[in-house]
Amino acid sequence: MSDQTADEAASASWETLEDRIDRIIERNRTLASENKALRQAQRKWSVERADLVRRNELAKSRIEAMINRLKLLTDE
Questions:
Q1: Which residues fall within 8 angstroms of residue 48, CB to CB, at 6 or more apart?
Q2: Quick one: 26 exposed, middle or buried, by C-beta within 10 A (0-12, 13-18, 19+)?
Q3: Separation in Å, CA 59 to CA 46, 48, 50, 62, 67
Q4: Per the confidence metrics, is the pTM higher than 0.90?
Q5: Closest to 36 in 3D by CA, of 25, 28, 47, 26
Q6: pLDDT category of residue 3 using cuts at 50, 70 and 90
Q7: Integer Cα distance of 24 and 27 in angstroms
Q8: Hey, what long-range contacts does 44-49 have (CB within 8 A, 24 or more apart)?
Q9: What backbone torsions phi and psi does residue 11 show, to the nearest 5 degrees?
Q10: Cα 35 vs. chain centroid, distance in angstroms?
Q11: Alpha helices, DSSP H only, in the chain?
């Protein structure tokens, strides 16, 4: 193999390696962006869930209060 052929092969190898590294970097950026979006969505769902639990507890206490009032009315 001549020096020129060896140099061309090495150059092609470096270009292939650079392309692979560029693709990995781009994939990393894409995954980081998706991860950020998923974390934001998770926080949103957590807040919404907490609100729903709070509202459920409020409804439960209101229903219990109504049941107690009805029991008092039937006892009279």
A1: none
A2: exposed
A3: 20, 16, 14, 5, 12
A4: no
A5: 28
A6: low
A7: 5
A8: none
A9: -65, -45
A10: 6
A11: 3-75
Tokens of 51: 């609100």
Fill in the amino acid letter for 35: N
Res 1: pLDDT: 52
Q: 74 or 35: which carries more pLDDT confidence?
A: 35
| Angstrom distance (rounded) from CA 2 to CA 15 | 20
In residues, how long is the chain?
A: 76
Residue type, 55: R
For the chain, what is the largest distance between any 2 Cα atoms, rounded to a whole number of angstroms? Answer: 109
pLDDT tens-digit profile of 4-45? 787 788 788 899 999 999 999 999 999 999 999 999 999 999
